[in-house]
Amino acid sequence: MKEIHSYWAYIVLAILIFTVVNAIIGLSKKKQFTDKDLRLGLFTLIVSHIQLLIGVALYIYEGRYANIAETMKVSEARLLALEHPLVMIIAIVLITIGWSKHKKKAEAAAKFKTFAIFYGAALFLVLSRIPWSNWF
Ligand code: HEM
Q: Domain segments of the chain: what residues?
């Protein structure tokens, strides 16, 4: 389970970066919003939701919430028991909001802008709370 979560994180990170960069390029070059852009946004949504499910299962399986008072005193344990799950869930909520908001926009620029803002903010949060020292 931990390994799946660890490897799946590469896919999440790669596709999220790709979608944000694609949205910024689309916005700045005033491109058309094509099927490819739509699928990229949808793929990111799906991949991140799968990571959420794996993460929740891992969290429960490992019992990270146990002995919470002691856990909070150690920054590394706190990262995995609280900060990482919480911030990742917020990031995935932002991706979900961005996805549903972009659908309501009619113009290409507005769609790209919505992706750039919401997926971009999610990317920022993900990068801030990945346990880098455990991962590599
Ligand atoms: C975009 C979403 C997420 C990404 C990119 C992500 C990424 C990662 C990465 C890279 C690690 C380190 C893996 C390793 O040590 O090799 C990790 C660990 C962990 N993640 Fe996530 N995660 C996400 C969401 C979540 C969520 C939503 C939860 C729980 C609700 C969660 C729970 C955990 C736990 C408990 C660990 C510690 C595993 C261990 O070292 O024993 N993750 N995550």
A: 2-135
